[in-house]
């Protein structure tokens, strides 16, 4: 799986769509754009501007049917007939990361988080905290699109994203690789501040409404809570991720 030829393009690129996001990506010297794809129907000043920007950046432009662009973008309403594949240098398949000589020691696993703003903020927080990886499954979690990139303030492009099919698949792979699996739950007696952690640990963040799904829940080693002395039932999942991420930073100091 570590062989580059077997890795899905979705494990190498973040795809942005729409004229403004594509132009912003082409203008950013810190990003490497692999290619731009323009719909056959895209004509006029907007298409010309993108073609000029791509040429100036040395990025190839491919033409495809409008339907193909919609399929590749995964968003038929907002692609505006153009998308760009941006190289995400730290994004790779979870299987490749686990097969590494030095596999990641602390990772987050997103399970059913469907709000792009939450996914983007979690990527920003985890990257800031220096975590080894954020597992973003292709199914059941918000797609890594311009909304996620915007919520991450652009950090999503260089976040340590690990890809796999589903959260359940990820949980099985992690358990087989010897990781402790810790899920956040409001009623857990053990807290994120007092749990004894093994050398390798994965922390599951459940969806905004349903929480951690049963498929992943069956494999959880221990449930953890964030103590809240105030009269509030729970935190937003991205806020919980921040508390957890920086508790790991504190422990590592």
Automatic annotation (TrEMBL):
It comes from Amycolatopsis plumensis. Keywords: Methyltransferase, Transferase. The keyword Methyltransferase applies. This is TrmH family RNA methyltransferase. CDD domains: SpoU-like_rRNA-MTase. GO terms for biological process: methylation. GO terms for molecular function: methyltransferase activity. Belongs to the class IV-like SAM-binding methyltransferase superfamily. RNA methyltransferase TrmH family. InterPro entries: Alpha/beta_knot_MTases (IPR029028), Ribosomal_eL30-like_sf (IPR029064), rRNA_MeTrfase_TrmH (IPR004441), SpoU_MeTrfase (IPR001537), SpoU_subst-bd (IPR013123), tRNA_m1G_MTases_N (IPR029026). The lineage of its organism: Bacteria, Bacillati, Actinomycetota, Actinomycetes, Pseudonocardiales. The keyword Heme does not apply. Residues 15-92 form the RNA 2-O ribose methyltransferase substrate binding domain. It comes from the Bacteria.
